[in-house]
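Example for tutorial group B:
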């Protein structure tokens, strides 16, 4: 007789509980795998982020050090500029003072001089005789020995059609002042016939002749600027005395001594 083979294991039917357990187990396994993978990825990314952050921090530290260095360098440069500016202002003041002193000294060296303007030029002219004639016509006592030098000077502006001025150096300031006073008095007495070419023996049309202080180029510039300012600001009087420029706004106002061009900018 044959025997039946009973080696096969009989499996029981799947229940809902079994299915739930299997699904839960699969879900847990999947979540665990995902968590491990995510954790691994996050670890890598976190390391990369930390590395980048550290690099940024290093860059910021470097830039900050550079900035602080530049700021310190800028501060030093600003201090240097401030010092240079102060030194420059001090030097400008010193130069201005020296120029003023030189101008005063140069003007003082002309204390015995006068300048005669608008005398027509002639090849055979005798300027000493012209000066002597002016002295006679104005009533000034003058001897030939009182004239140390008499010459024409170059024009400041070569295009100017006026004759070259004549500069006379007298023997002393006293002689010079006496000569100037005579001319001033003559012009006051003869307001309608002030000193002109006819008085010094030059024929033809009468042309005015001016006797003025022999100013330095600097003082001439100041005098010209003072006259221009006087016109603009309605100052009535601008005159020269002893090589200095004076201004007065009216008959009753105080006179002002103009020592440099900057002073004119302060007038009102």
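The residue assignment follows.
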């Amino acid at each position: 007789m044959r025997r039946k083979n009973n080696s096969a294991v009989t499996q029981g039917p799947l229940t809902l509980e079994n299915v739930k357990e299997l699904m839960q187990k699969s879900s847990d396994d999947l979540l665990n795998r995902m968590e491990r993978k995510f954790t691994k990825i996050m670890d890598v990314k976190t390391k990369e982020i930390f590395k980048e952050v550290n690099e940024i921090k290093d860059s910021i530290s470097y830039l900050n050090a550079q900035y602080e260095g530049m700021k310190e360098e800028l501060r030093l440069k600003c201090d240097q500029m401030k010092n240079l500016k102060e030194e420059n202002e001090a030097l400008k003041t010193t130069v201005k003072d020296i120029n003023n002193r030189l101008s005063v000294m140069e003007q003082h060296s002309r204390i015995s001089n006068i300048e005669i303007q608008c005398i027509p030029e002639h090849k055979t002219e005798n300027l000493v005789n012209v000066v002597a004639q002016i002295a006679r016509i104005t009533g000034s006592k003058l001897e030939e020995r009182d004239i140390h030098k008499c010459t024409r000077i170059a024009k400041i502006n070569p295009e100017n059609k006026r004759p070259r001025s004549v500069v006379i150096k007298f023997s002393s300031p006293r002689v010079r002042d006496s000569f100037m006073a005579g001319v001033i008095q003559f012009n006051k007495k003869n307001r309608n016939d002030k000193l002109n070419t006819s008085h010094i023996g030059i024929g033809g049309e009468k042309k005015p002749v001016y006797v003025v202080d022999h100013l330095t180029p600097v003082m001439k510039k100041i005098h010209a600027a003072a006259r221009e300012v006087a016109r603009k600001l309605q100052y009535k009087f601008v005159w020269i005395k002893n090589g200095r420029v004076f201004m007065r706004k009216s008959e009753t106002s105080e006179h002002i001594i103009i020592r440099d061009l900057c002073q004119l900018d302060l007038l009102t």
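The two ends are 151 Å apart (CA to CA). Compare this with the pattern of hydrophobic and polar residues in the output above.
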